[in-house]
């Protein structure tokens, strides 16, 4: 009986793009490691509150570490990915202004996420965790800027790829078409997640 192998995102990336530069591979694997660490943090916080702390009000009312760690990891991953796409847009188009705007928006989003995490770290219990004005502003800027950045990246990458593939061979045009569709889908998805997070925070503060 053959051994069962389960491929993760890093395995899929290595199989699909084995010729990428070392710094690109390092970036991808670092993001995968950060995402894994964030997932483990969320699982640990869930078990601590609803597993080990079952029927213990003091355990359930504590602010979980995930509320502090998730914005930090999200800020790091978001800035790394969005800066990478800004670099790609610069390479494809030769422009400097648009990539600069993308990085500036990404920095604003990441800074707001770190600020939101700092506000959460100051809370002792969930019972007193109310959305103050500063917390509300930090999360609105975080999610709003993130959504704006993702939409801008999707538009710019779609334009650059469409323009570069318009005069290529048929096989090249087909590949560019698939890449364009993938970028549009992922851009819409990430923007939708940021918008949904903001909407849920406003609806259920």
TrEMBL record:
Keywords: Membrane, Transmembrane, Transmembrane helix. The chain crosses the membrane at residues 27-52, 64-87, 94-116, 136-161, 182-204. Pfam families: DUF6534 (PF20152). InterPro entries: DUF6534. Residues 146-199 form the DUF6534 domain. This is DUF6534 domain-containing protein. It comes from Roridomyces roridus.
């Amino acid at each position: 009986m053959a051994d069962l192998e389960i491929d993760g995102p890093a395995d899929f990336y290595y199989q699909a793009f084995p010729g990428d530069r070392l710094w690109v591979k390092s970036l991808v694997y670092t993001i995968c490691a950060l995402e894994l660490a964030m997932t483990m943090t969320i699982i640990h916080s869930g078990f601590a509150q609803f597993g080990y702390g079952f029927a213990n009000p003091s355990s359930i009312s504590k602010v979980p570490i995930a509320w502090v760690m998730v914005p930090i990891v999200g800020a790091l991953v978001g800035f790394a990915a969005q800066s990478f796409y800004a670099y790609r847009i610069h390479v494809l188009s030769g422009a400097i202004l648009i990539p600069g705007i993308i990085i500036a928006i990404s920095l604003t989003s990441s800074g707001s996420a770190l600020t939101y995490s700092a506000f959460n770290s100051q809370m002792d219990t969930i019972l007193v965790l109310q959305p103050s004005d500063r917390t509300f502003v930090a999360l609105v800027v975080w999610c709003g800027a993130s959504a704006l950045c993702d939409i801008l990246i999707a538009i710019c990458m779609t334009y650059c790829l469409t323009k570069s593939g318009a005069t290529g061979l048929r096989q090249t045009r087909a590949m560019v078409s698939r890449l364009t569709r993938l970028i549009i889908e992922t851009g819409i998805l990430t923007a939708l997640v940021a918008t949904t997070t903001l909407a849920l925070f406003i609806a259920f503060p």
